Amino acid sequence: EGRNLFQKIRMMCYFYICINLMEAAILFGMSFVPNFYGFLTFQLQWLYVTSHTFPGFALIFDKGTSNIMKERPRDTEEIINRPLFKLLVLHATLMAIGVAFIYFVTYTGLYPVFHGNEVGVVSTEWSLTQQKARTMAIVTIILVESLMVLSIRRINMSLIDSHKAEDFSFRVYFFIALVIIGTVGLIYTPDVQLVMATLGIVFEFMWLTWLDWLLIIGATLPSIIGIELYKWSKRR
Question: Is the dihedral of CA 21, 93, 25, 210 positive or negative?
Answer without folding.
Answer: negative
